[in-house]
Write a structure and sequence with these properties.
By secondary structure, the protein is α/β, with parallel strands linked by helices. The chain has four helices and six strands; from the N terminus they run H-E-H-E-H-E-H-E-E-E. Helix 2 runs parallel beside helix 3 and helix 3 packs parallel to helix 4. The N and C termini lie far apart (37 Å).
Length: 128
């Protein structure tokens, strides 16, 4: 609720938020997920840094549910390097991208035991 009270309605098309290295939790992600669609309904691009945070699969699910309500979202970049996530989180993210053909650019950064994933676009199905 502190994010919602700090920000008025923002007719933004691009938004970059970096919570990397902070103590944001699933509760903070829930607050963010409730605020962004209401405050920035025209959002086309979102870059969200959540590396080295304690976000869990539940937080990712909450975030995915929120992002699915943004009708103009076409560019999404998520950084989860250092977060402890399971396959369920990635299934939720893949479902979001697959179900939203308007998402033309999707980048996911995740590193666990020296592996890194980078998804480019759902249309090209390029996975690195």
């Amino acid at each position: 609720s502190s994010l919602a009270s700090a920000l008025p309605y923002l007719p933004l098309k691009q938004l970059e938020l970096d919570f990397s290295g902070t103590q944001i939790t699933d509760r903070g992600i829930k607050s963010l997920s409730e605020s962004v669609p209401r405050l920035c309904p025209l959002l086309e691009g979102l870059e969200l840094g959540l590396s080295m945070t304690s976000i869990s699969d539940d937080g990712v699910k909450t975030l995915v549910d929120s992002l699915s309500t943004l009708p103009a979202l076409s560019h999404l970049s998520l950084d989860f390097i250092g977060a402890v996530l399971t396959e369920a989180a990635f299934v939720n993210l893949a479902d979001l991208v697959e179900s939203r053909p308007m998402i033309t650019s999707f980048k996911l950064f995740y590193e666990d035991t020296y592996s890194q994933l980078s998804f480019v676009t759902p249309q090209q199905k390029e996975y690195k």
